[in-house]
Each structure stands twice: as structure tokens, then as C-alpha cells.
Amino acid sequence: MITDGFHYLGVLLALSGGIVYVTQRRDYRVFKYVPGFVLLYFGAAALNTVGVFGDSKSIDSAGTAVKDALLPPMIFLLLFKCDLRKIVKLGPKLLLTFFVTALSIVLGFVVAYVALKSALHPEAGKALGALAASWTGGSANMVAVQGIVHSPENIFGYVLIVDTVLYSLWLLLMFGSAGFSERFNRWTRAETTHLDAQATAEQEQRPIDLASIMTLIGFSLALSAAAGWAGSVLPELGEVVNATTWAILIVSVLGLVVASTPLGRTAGSSEIATVMLYVVIGIIASGSDFSSLTEAPLYLLAGVVVLLVHLVVMVVYAKLARAELFSLAVASTANIGGVASAPVVASAFDRQLVPVGVLFALLGAFMGTFVGLTTVELLSAL
Questions:
Q1: Which residues on neighbouring strands pair with residue 53, listed in sequence order?
Q2: Nearest 10 degrees: CA dihedral of 148, 101, 339, 175?
Q3: CA proximity to 282, closest of 105, 17, 98, 30
Q4: pLDDT band at 200, cuts 50/70/90?
Q5: The model's pTM
Q6: Model pLDDT for residues 215-229, shown as the tens digit of each residue
Q7: Which residue from 115, 13, 42, 83 is spatially nearest to 258, judged by alpha carbons?
Q8: The pLDDT of residue 66
Q9: Which residues cross the membrane (predicted)?
Q10: What 3-state DSSP class applies to 136?
Q11: Beta carbons of 356 and 94 less than 8 angstroms apart
């Protein structure tokens, strides 16, 4: 049994390193469908279930301190690629489609929560809000919301399972939708002129070196400390807007500012942010216990309801706004899937429009945390 905080963090880092090595260096088909974050969650939760991590103040304080310290710089670094100047160039119709997609997902969570509230855990709204952050942004937004609202680790495990299972099915559906896009566009009487000239060239990056790594780590951690101090002196508003919320809001805005400067093109920002994300997820997972997984199917049902509402709203919107299937599918994938999957779906329609998928996903990465927190507030009021 491990009761020392340093040993505890060492085990989580070793587990993370092993999972990343296997998933990146071994060509097993299962790794195409099961993200490394999910494997890490199950691995850390399994260690806790069998009693590897003891119940000690050293472990609790180490995990809490590291998680709180890494959340703001992780969000900050992930936004380095989110250049608002490029996003604005998408045009009003594409941006409207993206925002309607995000709103339909939030509406889906409200409907699912109202329908299943009596059977869910009293704090299920916090976990569903974290899932809403993931389905409008990404995994980093999910753990950010979990850290702010303190959703119970076991319930967070349920929504992580829902995220993985339904995301995989939804990605297959969106990828396959390219085959009947022409018939769908004829039905909606869509115009595609707003898609012209949307392709943008990727900016070149210098290779990752010691200077870029030290600059990114030093700058992001220093900024995180400053944002944490600022958040501690700003007023708390309700249960959601607390010191952590203020810190993440500050670094999110600064991340957008830096993205439009030469510093935003520094190589290695996404890699370092991903390392931080693995550590944070490992810490959260280490507080989970598999003995209560029997409730997971109920949360899976909630996820299905969310996607059904989302699908209905998007079809109605497409008919009313004469939207083409490309923007619907890519906006939906950018929300539910993120930056790794949106370009793949975009390429199924037209390779020249892959940057649209990237920009959609980056916009979601900025919005996801705040959409998730708004969802928590909505569900808590029901």
C-alpha cells in the first residue's frame, strides 16, 4: 500500500508513461478506438480498487496540489493554436452552425437530466456538466470543470465511459454521413458558396528543442501562479464561480491573446499540455472505485438522450437555415470529438476544408469549460 505522496505521483506518472508508449509505439487496432486517457483512468482506478493507494493525508494533499497547479497552465497551452483571426474568417453562417450545435448539446443535457433525475445520483448534474464540457470542447475542458465543481470521482468515471463509447459511435456516424451529403443538401436546399476559399495553410513551426520546452513550462507555470493569486482575491459568485474558475477564465483569455503572437507558434505547447492532462486525469482516476460501476448504464442512457436531442435540433436547423451537411457534421464532430477527429470528418467531405474542422475544434476548446459550467448551473436549478 502506498501512503507517500511522492511515491503516489511516481506510480501515476509511470502508468501514464507506459500507456503513452504502448499506444504511440504499438500498432494495435484497439488503440484506434480506446484513447490513452481512458486506459489511464481504468488503470489508476483499478489500482485504487485493489488497495494500492492508501487513504492518507500525504496522498490527498499531493494530488490536490498538483491537480490545482496544472489545470490553468494546461488550458493556457492548449489554446496556443486558437487564433481568433482565422476563426472569424470562417464567416457568419459557419460560426452560427457551430454555436447552434453547442446549444443543442446543452439542451440535450437538460432534457436528459429532467427525464432521469429521479434515478441519478444527487450530484449527477456536476458530472453531466463535465461531460457537456467534453462534448463542446474536449477532455481538458472536462477535467477543468470536474476540478472546479468537485464532481465525485466515481460519477466522473461513469461519464468518461459514456464519453468514450458514444463518441466512437458518433464519429462513425458522422464519417459515414459524407456518402449521402448531396441528397441531404438537396433536401435542405443548401448553398455552399460560404465554404469557398476557407482552406488556410498551416503555419510552419520550429522543431521542439530545450529553449521551447523551458519557455513554455516556465511561462505557463508562472502565469498560472499569477492567475491563481488573482482568482483568490476576486469575489466568488454562487457555487460555480470560485477562485479556480477565475484562474481558468484569466488563462483562457490570455491564451487567446498569446495565440495571435509569435509566442503562440512555439513548438511543443500541445505536447506539454497533453502531459499535464495525463497527470490530472490520473489523479482524478485514483480516487475512483470500480465497486460502484453498476450505475454506468444509466449515464449511458443519458448520453444517448443528449445525442438524440442534438440530432433532432441539427436536422431542424439545417432545414430552416438551408445548411449543408458538411458544416453540420464537422461542427458536431468538433464539439463531441475535438481537434483529433474533426479534421478526419472534414477530409471525408473535402480535403481542402480540413482547416475548417481544426478551427471549429479550437473554438470548442476555448468555449468548452464555460459551456460545461453553464450546464452545471442549469442542471442545479432544475
A1: 2
A2: 140
A3: 17
A4: very low
A5: 0.72
A6: 999 999 998 889 889
A7: 83
A8: 87
A9: 6-23, 30-53, 94-116, 128-149, 155-180, 210-231, 243-263, 275-293, 299-318, 325-346, 358-379
A10: helix
A11: yes
